[in-house]
C-alpha cells in the first residue's frame, strides 16, 4: 500500500484572451491560461491542497469552479459568481485553496460569464491516496470538448434577442480531444497483458459524446468521482459535465492494432451528413508495424442502442462500490424543467416556472448575514430560486423534464444517489407538445450509484437522493451553458443556521466585493429584512403554469 504525504500543489493561472484556431476552422477569440490553450490538466492526490493562483487578464470578471469537489467547510471556494463569491475583477488576482478529500475524475472550469465555453476548462485528476480499488498499470485521459466558430457571448445574445427567431439556427461544433482537433488524435499505446484506466471527461458547452473501443471489453468503474462495481459496457455516452472511468485489459498478443471511436452529437440537433453527428477515431496501438483491424466508427456507434443518459445501459443500473444502501427520505422536492415565453419577447428556461438571475449580493453572504431570516426563502429574491434545506435532512429530488431537450443537471457540493428513471405522466403536463415517452421505469440496484451530473431525458423524470450534510449555498443548474444562461438554475441554501456559526468568509473575498461596489451583507438586494428594492423586476411568463418550449 502506498501512502503519500499530503502536499500543497501550486498552480498559477494567468487568464487571458488569445486568438487561436483550435479546429482548423479559422482563428477566433478564446480564453486561455498563460497565453495558451489547451490548459494543462491538473493532477493532485487525495488529501492534497490544491492552491490555484488566478490572475484575471480579461475585460470582465472571472471565477473558477472545481466541478465535483465537495468544498466541505469551504463553500466560499466553490466559485459560481454571485452565488458563493464576487467575480475576480479585471486586473485582479485571487488564490483558491481546494482541500481535496475525494479521488476520481473532476474538472476545473470558469463559472462567471460562461467562460468555460470559450476554453477556460481542464481536467482535474485526483489520484487515490491509497491503492485504488482496481489495479491498472497506466491511465489515459480523454478530455472531450465541443468547439464553435463564435464566442459563447455571441451565441447567448442571439438566443436571448427578442428580435431574432427562436431557437437560433443550429450550430455544428467540432470536437476537441485532449484540447486539439479531434481529427488529429494520437494513438493510445497499449502493451500486451497490461490493464489501463481511461478517464473520459465531457467538458462541452452543449454536446454529448460517445466513446467505444473495437475488440476490447470496457468496464465502467467510476462516474463523476464515485467508484462503481465494474460494469461491462460496449461504450458509454457522456452529457456535458459528466465523467466516466473505463477499465480495459490489453490483448495477450501484439499482432494487430485496433481503434477507439468517438461520436460528437446532440439528439436535439437534426442530423446533417458530415456535420452532426461527427465521428472521430484513433489507433489502439500495440505495434507500430501491425495492421489496424478494420472497423467503421459510424456504423459501430450507430448500431449500438442509444439513450440520452448512457448508451447501452443507464447510469441507474450501476452499483456504488461503497455498497451504501438507498438513503431514507425526510422531504421530497419536485422540480419541473421547462422553457417559456415571456412578455418581453424573450424565451427563457425555468425550473418550477422561475428563471434564474443573479442576485446583487452573493447568496452565501446573504445566508450568513441575515440572521434568523436566512431560513426564509423570500430574502434571497424572486430569481435566485432559493430552496432552504435543513441540516442533515434526507432529500429526494424528483426532476421532471416535459421539455423537448435533454438537460444535464449538475449539483454543486454533493453527489446524489440515482434512485429511478421513468416516463412522465403526460396528464401532468398538458402544455407539453411532445409525445409521451415509451421508456420504462428503471430502478436502482440495492446500492444506488451516485454522481454529480445527471441527464434528465426528454419526457422522463429522475429521482435522486442526498443528505443535506454539507452546509453551504449550492447551485443546481443545467450544464448546457446556453440553458444555464437562459435561467435553468436554482440555489440550494443548505443549513444557513449552521453556516452562521461555523463559516468565516476570508477577508480578501469580502474586499473583492467591496472594491467592485458589491455589498457583502443583507438580502438579495443588499437591504435588510424583506426590502428587495433595487433588484430587477422578474420577467413575466406569457402563459401561466408550466409552459414548454414548442
Ligand atoms: Cu439544459
Could you give a quick summary of the protein structure above?
The protein is mainly β and 550 residues long.
Going across the biggest sheet, name each strand in turn.
Answer: 11-10-9-13-18-15-16
| Helix/sheet category | mainly beta
Largest sheet: 7 strands, mixed
CA distance, first residue to last residue: 57 Å
Number of strands: 33
Question: CATH homologous superfamily of the largest domain, by name?
Answer: Cupredoxins -  blue copper proteins
What labels would you give this structure?
Immunoglobulin-like; seven-stranded mixed sheet; mainly beta; binds copper (II) ion; 550 residues; Cupredoxin; Cu-oxidase_2nd; 6 helices; copper; metal-binding
Written description of the protein model:
InterPro entries: Cu-oxidase-like_N, Cu-oxidase_2nd, Cu-oxidase_C, Cu-oxidase_fam, Cu_oxidase_CS, Cu_oxidase_Cu_BS, Cupredoxin. It comes from Coemansia reversa (strain ATCC 12441 / NRRL 1564). Belongs to the multicopper oxidase family. This is Cupredoxin. Keywords: Copper, Metal-binding, Oxidoreductase. The strands form six sheets. A seven-stranded mixed β-sheet has the order 11-10-9-13-18-15-16, with no helix packed on it. Strands 22, 23, 25, 27, 28, 29 and 31 form a seven-stranded mixed β-sheet that branches. Strands 12, 14, 17, 19, 20 and 21 form a six-stranded mixed β-sheet that branches. The protein contains six helices and 33 strands. The chain folds into three domains: 8-127, Immunoglobulin-like (Sandwich); 138-317, Cupredoxins -  blue copper proteins (Immunoglobulin-like, Sandwich); 331-515, Cupredoxins -  blue copper proteins (Immunoglobulin-like, Sandwich), CATH 2.60.40.420. The model has no long low-confidence stretch (mean pLDDT 93). The radius of gyration is 23 Å and the shape is globular. By secondary structure, the protein is mainly beta. 50% of the residues are buried. The structure holds copper (II) ion (CU).
